[in-house]
Design a protein that fits this description.
With 389 residues, the chain is an alpha+beta fold. Helices cover 48% and strands 23% of the residues.
Length: 389
């Protein structure tokens, strides 16, 4: 079999008149076999750019790429094996695998680029910002899908009505070393501390209320005590409580009917109790009225007796004083009569006697009296001579 030989043949034609660095040539190869042209059906010409500048540029780019790779590859290796990055909002704890400082290191690792030698040590990160655990039965009530969601806390109240309480617990990590040493490098602290303590303490503190007291000021006192107790339990585990938000209460469907029935029974008991108290008070009132009336009667009798006694004393005193006065009057009259008699026995008694007789005569006369002299003229009477006895 004769071996086929191909000899490249063709022509080069200059297509541009630019400088030698940017001339474009058309090259038409021609392959023949035994005097025949191959690929006679392909008539499209082939173009090839031949430029010394481009050849020099390719050489320079190749050298730069080599040096670039020579620098970047060690940097990438250093970044992957020696340095790690702790993002903002996180805090890390370093774990040394072997050596004198083997184990967890107490000093926290701050955000930024930190040393982490592959195979020797490992930096485990925890979120440093505020974390939220939400207890709710309605997923639409959650403010963020990244928050840990748990079913609502079912609180058994003292009056027998279970109340579903929606709660949001806000906390943050204070000591990543304590968290990692007690609960590992995951989120086990949420289940072991936050969820477990929150569920039990809410049932303990809010379970002391009646169902209607969830909307009373008493609930605020119980929630404050709940926050203080929960913060005290979180602190030894490297966590800090920020707040506990009691957001909503869901009562059972039969709560209204049962509450109305219970309220009616309570009101009946209270009404009967008040009626019994009213009857007791009325009995005491009647007894007091009777005692008061008896006391009034007794006091009235005493007062009447005292009034009678006082009146008797008054009458006795009056009679005594009247008798003394009559005695004094009679004594005075007797003394006056005695003194008159004595006066009549002395000088001027005759004139006085005449005067009295004249007055008696005048008093006995009825009708008008005509006299020419004044019988009461004492001057004339005194000028008359006294009669001899």
């Amino acid at each position: 079999m004769e071996e086929a030989t191909f000899a490249p043949r063709g022509t080069i034609e200059v297509l541009t008149t630019l400088c030698a660095a940017f001339r474009i040539h058309r090259y038409e190869p021609s392959y023949r076999q035994n005097g025949q042209t191959m690929f006679e059906a392909l008539k499209t010409p082939r173009f090839k750019v031949q430029s010394p500048f481009l050849q020099q540029a390719r050489g320079r780019v190749g050298k730069l790429g080599f040096w670039f790779l020579l620098v970047l590859v060690p940097l990438f290796v250093l970044r992957a094996c020696v340095i790690t990055y702790v993002p903002p909002g996180s805090v890390g704890v370093r774990q040394v695998s072997y050596g004198p400082g083997k184990g967890l290191q107490k000093k926290p690792v701050t955000p930024g680029y930190q040393r982490e030698i592959a195979g020797y040590e490992k930096i485990h990160t925890f979120p440093r910002d505020i974390q939220v655990v939400e207890f709710t039965n309605n997923r639409t009530e959650s403010s963020n899908e990244k928050h840990r969601q748990m079913p609502a806390v079912k609180v058994p109240t003292v009056d027998g009505y279970p109340v579903d309480v929606d709660v949001s617990v806000l906390y943050r990590l204070k000591d990543p070393y304590k968290v990692a040493s007690k609960f590992g490098f995951g989120t086990g602290y949420e289940e072991s501390v936050v969820i477990r303590f929150t569920d039990s303490l809410i049932k303990q503190y809010l379970g002391e209320l009646r169902a209607e007291q969830f909307y009373h000021e008493t609930r605020l006192d119980r929630v404050r005590a709940l926050k203080a107790d929960l913060a005290r339990r979180m602190e030894p585990n490297g966590l800090v409580l920020t707040d506990v938000l009691i957001r909503q209460y869901d009562y059972p469907g039969t709560f209204q009917a049962l509450t109305e029935q219970k309220k009616i029974q309570d009101q009946s008991v209270l009404a009967n109790r008040e009626l019994a108290k009213q009857a007791e008070v009325q009995t005491r009132l009647n007894q007091t009225i009777a005692e008061g009336q008896n006391l009034i009667n007794v006091k009235t009798s005493e007062f009447n007796a005292r009034i009678t006694e006082i009146n008797a004393r008054k009458d006795l005193y009056e009679r005594q004083k009247r008798a003394e006065a009559d005695l004094l009057i009679k004594s005075a009259e007797a003394n006056g009569t005695e003194q008159i008699n004595r006066a009549l026995e002395g000088a001027g008694s005759a004139k006085l006697l005449k005067l009295r007789r004249g007055l008696a005569l005048l008093n006995s006369i009825k009708g008008p009296i005509y006299i020419s002299e004044d019988p009461t003229d004492l001057g004339k009477i005194s000028s008359e001579k006294p009669e001899k006895p």
